[in-house]
Amino acid sequence: MRRYRTLAWLVMAMVLASPGHAQAPAGLANVVPGAFKFKWIHGSVAAARNRDPRIQVAPYNQDTIVMRENIAVYWEAPFTYLLIGQERALLIDTGATPQASYYPLRATVDGILRRIASLRGVQQIPLVVAHTSGEDIAQNQGVNQFRDRPQTTLVPLDLAGMKPHYAFAQWPQGEATIDLGGRAITVLPAPGTHKDGVAFYDRQTGLLFTGDLLFPGRIQISNDADYVATLERLNAFAQNHPLQWVLGGHIDMTAVAGVCYLRHTNFKPNEHFLQLDADAIGEALKHARPIVGKPAAIIRADFLLLNRVSPDEEGPWPADLPPATPRAVLR
Question: Which one in 143, 179, 322, 324 has a CA-CA gap of 20 to 30 Å to 202?
């Protein structure tokens, strides 16, 4: 346990000491910049022998922290995002493992916030815990670690409680706002892979957090009409808001275009990047529209779309992607 805490403090110290970050591309000059200047821990062939931290803590910038569950703890290795404002912080998703002894998410978050509070000269930073879906998924199993935490607001997991919390009167239409104090987070209804799915847009950094809706991996569509409608809304939203990156809930893809790791794999040394650019929304929409009502497995360079088929379905290799050889080894 001391190891992951030490890693967290080292990472935080490095980012707080270094003001330099990658510049935002054209059209994003007004967003606060950040950078992914690190490599994700990639697990082990024998998970029991893995000695990496249970949680990898990686700063995008000093107020935006990305955390990833160790692949050896849970094969999907979901991501959790901590956004820190002047008055409170927002934790998006809580990971795949409820037991703090295996997955010390609350201790990690508390440590980061204590450090930030100390630097700011305040006693505590209140926390809001929200999820990209309330269904039984790998991104929300750690929520119970926060139920007795002081100064903590838990957004209801169930759709019946979540809709009035965000004041969504005409779901899935509309938007909500989480005010962190000088940092506003837009909450967007995003059903399609989950009936209660939501996405979070951070106006400060231009980051869009999409959970299972859009990520570099096997996108299992549960309602194709909802999925297309959500992508259309997000596509329109992206036309009017600076969008730096799309950040999903986990990574399944390899670095080879169109090639995905097998499910339940605990060793992923050749992963795709976490971040997708804004064009990924239009790419997903383009290929999702024609498969509404049809069973299909669509292979794209950065993700797979799976509609009305099993999560292990193999689709035809697309002619516009280079041949992936040796494909079986990388999967």
Answer: 143
